Inverse folding.
């Protein structure tokens, strides 16, 4: 192409392309952007500096720990600058396949077994010493159990103390035996810590049950023969084991036996319920309970006369049974410095219901005879209220319903 033609074609293109100077607004904002960039740069440098300092501190602490607790025995027999570089392998030797030698393999296996047996024979005296430690701990535990059962009166409490002491003896014996076998206290501490962590995680429920048994034995929450309620379990304690408690079940509102009497069934629950549930003991220090019987009386009855009659009947039925436990209850409260009034005779109380009045008789009876005395009191009150002289003054209450009849004009026509 001729040079003149090139110049003619290039002139309009140059005229079209113009270099514009940067806008003033952008130039106005450029110092602020530079300031922000400098601030970000300073922050990044400070964070990098802190990271380097932390890394150096971590490396220094690791080195100190290695110098104190590790690496001493390994480097004790080494000489400085004794490292030797291995010669480079020959390429032809690397490319050649390795041939299996049965005799060499058999010799290597025999050497391994021989080394294992030699190590085992070397550890055999240490293992025997560890077993002797365990036997000594077992004998000491049995001797301490016999001593506690002889000098301590409470069987459950002495059993708990003996169990704790036996566990302490066995832990000491296991630690001593492992230290003898391992020979290195640092390795022993690490292995025992890991093993204890794993066992505590795997045996969490049995450990909690054992803890509940020890706590019950020391604090005496319940004993065999007590009537208790733990969670949904209600009945008489039959047997207390290390991990479980067996209860002779008693009846209740949601059971096939409605009264608080034995159902004939045994319930076994884990002892960790002691740590998680409320424990209600009905017969530990005071084998009596307050019970109530309620009668429905119509509002048209003579309430003052009803109180007099019901109190007299209750005094005749449960009054003699109530005097002794009431006096014992009063002494118990005085011993604990609790100022409460204790009634020596049955009391009668009123409460309003929907269409009648509830007359409640409150009295104190043995814990396992609630149903018997309630039945006798109900029978006596029923006989008394059925007499003719009480017919118009003590009227039984029944549910009532009022019906209002509205007349319709269409029915009249």
């Amino acid at each position: 192409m001729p040079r003149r033609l090139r110049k003619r074609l290039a002139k309009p293109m140059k005229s079209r392309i113009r270099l514009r100077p940067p806008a003033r607004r952008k130039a106005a904002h450029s110092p602020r952007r530079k300031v922000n960039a400098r601030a970000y740069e300073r922050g990044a440098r400070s964070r990098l500096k802190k990271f380097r300092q932390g890394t150096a501190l971590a490396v220094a602490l690791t080195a100190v720990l290695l110098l104190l607790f590790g690496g001493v025995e390994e480097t004790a027999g080494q000489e400085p600058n004794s490292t030797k570089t291995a010669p480079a392998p020959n390429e032809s030797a690397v490319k050649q396949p390795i041939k299996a030698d049965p005799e060499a393999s058999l010799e290597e296996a025999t050497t391994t077994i021989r080394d294992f047996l030699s190590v085992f024979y070397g550890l055999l005296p240490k293992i025997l010493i560890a077993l002797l430690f365990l036997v000594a701990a077992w004998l000491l535990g049995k001797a301490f159990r016999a001593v506690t059962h002889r000098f301590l009166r409470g069987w459950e409490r002495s059993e708990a103390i003996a169990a704790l002491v036996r566990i302490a003896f066995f832990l000491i014996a296991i630690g001593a035996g492992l230290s003898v076998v391992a020979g290195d206290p640092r390795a022993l501490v690490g292995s025992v810590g890991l093993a204890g962590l794993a066992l505590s995680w795997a045996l969490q429920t049995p450990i909690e049950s054992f803890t509940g048994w020890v706590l019950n034995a020391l604090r005496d929450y319940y004993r065999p023969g007590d009537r208790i309620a733990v969670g949904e379990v209600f009945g008489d304690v039959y047997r207390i084991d290390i991990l479980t408690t067996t209860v002779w079940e008693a009846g209740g509102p949601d059971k096939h036996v409605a009264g608080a009497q034995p159902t004939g069934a045994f319930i076994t629950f884990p002892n960790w319920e002691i740590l998680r549930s409320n424990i209600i003991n009905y017969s530990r220090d005071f084998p009596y309970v307050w019970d109530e019987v309620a009668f429905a009386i119509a509002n048209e009855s003579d309430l003052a006369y009803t109180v007099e009659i019901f109190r007299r009947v209750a005094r005749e039925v449960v009054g003699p049974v109530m005097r002794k436990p009431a006096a014992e209850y009063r002494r118990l409260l005085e011993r604990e410095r609790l100022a409460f009034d204790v009634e020596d005779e049955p009391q009668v109380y009123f409460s309003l219901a929907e269409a009648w009045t509830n007359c409640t008789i409150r009295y104190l009876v043995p814990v396992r005879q609630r149903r018997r005395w309630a039945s006798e009191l109900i029978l006596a009150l029923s006989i008394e209220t059925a007499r003719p002289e009480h017919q118009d003054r003590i009227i039984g209450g029944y549910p009532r319903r009022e019906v209002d009849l509205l007349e319709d004009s269409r029915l009249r026509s």
Notes: The mean pLDDT is 76. The radius of gyration is 46 Å.
